[in-house]
Amino acid sequence: MCGITGYTGFNQAGPILLDGLKRLEYRGYDSAGIAVQGEEEIMMLKATGKVSHLVDKYNDTPDFKGVCGIGHTRWATHGIPSDTNAHPHLSADGKFAVVHNGIIENFAEIRAELEKYGIEFKSETDTEVIVQLLAHNYKGNFKMALMKTIAKLEGSYAIGVISADHPGTIFCARLSSPLIIGLGLEENYFASDITALVSNTKDVIDMDDGEVAELTPEGVKIYDHAGREINKAVRHITWDIASAEKSGYEHFMMKEIMEQPQALKATIEPRVKDEEIVFDELKLDMKKFNRVHITACGSAYHAGCVGRGIIEALCRIPVEAEVASELRYRDPIMDDKTLVIVISQSGETADTIAAMKECKYKGATVLAIVNVVGSSIAKLADHCLYTWAGPEIAVATTKGYTTQVVLLAMFAVWAAGELKTISHGAYTSMVKDIMRLPERAQRALDLNSRVMKMADKYYDNQSLFFIGRNMDYAVALEGSLKLKEISYLHSEAYAAGELKHGTIALIEPGRLVVALCCYEKLLDKTISNIQQVKARGARVLAVAHEGNRAIVTEADDVLFVPVTDPLLVPVIEIIPMQLFAYYVAKKNGCDIDKPKNLAKSVTVE
User: Fold this and answer.
1) Are residues 65 and 6 in contact, defined by beta-carbon separation less than 8 angstroms?
2) Which residues of the chain fall short of a pLDDT of 70?
């Protein structure tokens, strides 16, 4: 959700903090602010709205100077978006400033206690209790005051703190919220996301829950929950800042749509050797499991719905897919014979982490599929497979989703081989088809130059439906979400066979229905559903395989994708739907990369 960053060194902190906040904009926010250690006091600048508003304030404040500071982009959870509620927050005595991601669940209790001591609060936020409690606990030892403070906090946090009494020093702490330390030469950094750091350093330390970091220009010290100094591994980042730039595209989303052939290649090729799928990092005995449970949120859940179909078809083992925010509270039935697959692009999704912990508590083995190396989910899982999709900046996932689906498909083929539920011929055929997916993704992009015209034709539909059967229905879920989250149009996905059980009552003249028609085993059934909505005046935009002439006579418009194995077609079929959502949103003047009210990584419940 929010983003935090910090710097200590010998350069002016302001420009470095503002650059970091610009690179964190994609996470979603409604206000921003920075604080630096001045010569005599902590100085702060805050602004509601875009980071550019904060930059304007900085440029109009020439005396805002300091070589150590912290910054924040806020997504409101407690209190309306305002300059007062924006971070950083300053203690009543002016000695400390804090930035914070997460939620302090017992903030009301702490606030009431501090108010008894006469401490006055200025904001409505939960975060302000951190800095006021820290100042209350401070007796001259910065580290001990912070350790005492975080011991009282309940909830989740990634914290960065500076003190007027300790020039050049930043303390950070983490619990259930991402935090990364960046190492430089006579300068050091922290951030909630690697994109804020990668233009300045490639060497990072991943903080774990309960740890505290002390940053000075001279070095970094990491402490455990008891305050003992510990050694942490340094990780080198292999991608550069160009990977997180637009590279000439108007929006990150379009860049990431176009990157999908290469992203799929990066996910697939290292894991195929001599026509066999090899997971060197996976030591898993599939024979011990009698069922699989997939859990995730949003698009990752939709990828899981595709994965459910592929795993069941190839492995002949029962598979469930469930939204993590429901699973975490449902007291699910599982044991040591259950394999749980959790999926998350960021690896920091709060509901998914909570569901994962619940499953582990019940004895299940957890396999994570994530993109971000060293993320919380990757660390908590018993086994982990990385998608290697590269950085994804747009809030609406594209290559993150398709690489999750292909990795689930590869896992299903591998697992079927381990379980002997697939013939040698079928195994080899599936591997070959998986290897062809990057070129087919490129073909799907090349085939759909007409998508912009389709968007021009249909952009003004205020309510529309996506329908499909079997794998097509799983793709319809994701296609509908893509459209609604960036264009703000009402869109719903339905299993096509359910139309007559209520939904068809909403079909009226001019209503757009997007029909996914690539699962050809049930194509006749889907065509029947198309005819039903057309009879009631709907306009139909279909997605079908190249060469499918039958659909041309039924639908008003058709977008084509290359012929692909029925179990793998969701990887390809979603691409024209991503393009359609993009161009509809653009036609409607929406903020495509940063849709309103949404965030890239949902790190709070």
Assistant:
1) no
2) 1, 26-28, 76, 78, 239-247, 597-605
Q: Which of 2, 172, 384, 517 is catalytic?
A: 2
Please give the Cα distance from 507 to 538 (Å, whole number). Answer: 6
For the chain, the distance separating the N- and C-terminal CA atoms, rounded to the nearest angstrom, is 11
The pLDDT tens digits for 148-162 are 999 999 988 999 999
Selecting among 95, 399, 482, 600, the annotated active-site residue is 600
Is 482 among the residues known to form the active site? no
- The single residue listed with the structure tokens 């400033």 is 97
Instruction: Please check whether residue 307 is in contact with residue 409, taking contact to mean a CB–CB distance below 8 angstroms.
Output: yes
Nearest alpha carbon to residue 431 among 277, 260, 267, 270: 277
* Alpha-carbon span 474 to 296, nearest angstrom: 14
| 3-class state of residue 306 by DSSP | helix
Q: 43 pairs with which residues across the strands? A: 36
> In this predicted structure, what is the pLDDT of residue 3?
85
Hey, which residues does 272 pair with through a beta bridge? 277
Distance CA 185, CA 199 (A): 14
Q: Which residues contact 204 (CB under 8 A, 6 or more apart)?
A: 180, 181, 182, 183, 194, 197, 234, 235, 236, 237
What is the residue type of 441? A
Within 13 Å, how many C-alpha atoms sit on residue 258's CB side?
Answer: 13
Phi, psi of 456 (to 5 degrees): -60, -35
- The token duo for 489 is 């149009």
174 in Cβ contact with 211 (< 8 Å):
yes
Look up 305 and say whether it is catalytic.
no
Secondary structure in 3-state letters for 515-572: EECCCHHHHHHHHHHHHHHHCCCCEEEEEEECCCCCHHHCCCEEEEECCCCCCCHHHH
Cα gap 206→489, rounded to integer Å: 39
Q: What pLDDT is stored for residue 239 in this prediction?
A: 63
The burial class, CB within 10 Å (0-12 / 13-18 / 19+), for 532 is middle
Task: Using a cut of 0.85, tell me whether the model's pTM lies above it.
Answer: no
CA distance readout (Å), 534 to 507, 510, 515, 516, 556: 9, 10, 11, 15, 9
Find all residues with CB under 8 Å of 273, minimum gap 6, and list them: none
Decide: 475 and 447 in contact? Cβ < 8 Å: no
Determine the pLDDT at residue 506.
Answer: 75
Q: Which residues have CB under 8 Å from 109's CB, separation 6+?
A: none
Residue recorded with tokens 């690539």: 518
Which residues touch 405 (CB under 8 Å, ≥6 apart)? 303, 306, 307, 570, 571
pLDDT tens, residue by residue, 524-545: 999 988 998 888 888 999 999 9
Domains of the chain: 3-241 (3.60.20.10), 246-435 (3.40.50.10490), 441-590 (3.40.50.10490)
Other C-beta atoms closer than 10 Å to the C-beta of 258 total 18
pLDDT at 28: 63
